[in-house]
Specification:
317 residues
Length: 317
């Protein structure tokens, strides 16, 4: 498979207000795209053996997921060297997944079989979480810590799940159908506890930065409260798998800023985006298992009363 796509990266829109003349109390509002995944895979495999025998397979996997955070932050300067802050976030997760597989086999004029697997899942989920931090400014060295709480489920709506599995054999063996369609389901989508550290060291014209964040493990849980599916005519029960778990993961980044003049600077950074996919669990909510390394560079300059920052990034995994 080869694929080239272009689009917007996860982004942030924010503004800050100063509550007093001294700047000791400040508030900020922010809108963040925390996670965005869009994928659409299609595969076909046809194998012909002789004139009559043929095996054909078709598969489609589609997902369109996005999570956005809306936040309110308050910051307070304790003294000239220390500041603290806390943020309240409301998060919205929107998920759509579809899997469709069709297998057909014809061995001879008397023996043929068809198997169909179809699964469709959709939900919206609201949750809240908090972030708290402390910052120490001891120029030329500054550093800080933040803690982000696990999310708490608020409410959700329009949770839906459809599953249809069938196998038909022309000689009358192993024929079955398992189908279920549910609406108004309850959904839960968890985000983990995380702890982060950041530091910067400032020279006259060059500044160096380092940051790192650890994300805790999330044990297996049910994203949707779906019911088991009963196979007809055998009465066998198939679990409608809507479980998810996350392993603990660690990410870090380094950056540099160099001033070429009063109004012109160069930027560069490298950072990791490691997958929290649990290798011991197969989940429809975890398609990505690879780790990504990002390289970014840019310039910042001032023209009249306008400050401009331009950047370019490349990533691979």
């Amino acid at each position: 498979l080869e694929s080239i796509t272009s689009g917007s990266a996860p982004s942030i829109l924010a503004f800050r207000l100063q509550l007093d003349n001294e700047g000791e109390n400040q508030i900020a509002f922010s809108f963040l795209v925390r996670d965005q995944v869009k994928s659409d895979f299609y595969g076909r495999d046809i194998n012909k053996s002789g004139i009559q025998s043929i095996t054909a397979n078709d598969g489609v996997a589609f997902q369109d997921n996005i999570e956005t955070w809306i936040g309110f932050s308050w910051g307070f300067k304790i003294n000239e060297k220390v500041g603290i802050g806390i943020s309240q976030y409301v998060a919205l997760r929107s998920n759509r997944q579809r899997l469709q597989i069709i297998n057909q086999v014809l061995e001879d004029s008397q023996t043929a079989a068809t198997q169909i697997i179809f699964s469709d899942t959709y939900f919206n989920n609201f949750k809240i979480l908090w972030k708290a931090g402390i910052f120490f400014d001891h120029r030329p060295l500054s550093f800080g810590f933040t803690v982000t709480t696990p999310s708490l489920n608020l409410f959700n709506y329009t949770g839906q799940s459809s599953i249809n599995i069938s196998q038909i054999n022309s000689i009358g063996e192993d024929q079955f159908i398992a189908a279920n369609d549910e609406d108004g389901l309850t959904s839960v989508y968890k985000t983990p506890l995380s702890i982060a550290f950041g530091t910067a060291y400032y020279f006259e014209k060059t500044s160096f930065y380092f940051s790192a964040e650890w994300f805790a493990k999330i044990s297996q849980y049910d994203v949707l409260n779906t019911k088991p599916v009963i196979v007809v005519p055998t009465g066998e029960i198939i679990t409608n798998n809507n479980t998810l778990s996350r392993r603990s993961v660690f990410n870090f980044g380094v950056g540099v800023n160099h001033k070429l003049g009063k109004d012109f600077s160069l930027y560069g950074s490298i950072f990791t985006n490691n997958s929290a996919n649990d290798p011991d669990q197969s989940s429809k909510y975890s398609l990505s298992t690879y780790n990504i390394l990002h390289f970014l560079g840019g310039v910042s300059f001032k023209y009249s009363v306008i400050d401009l920052i331009l950047g370019l990034g490349y990533a691979f995994g």
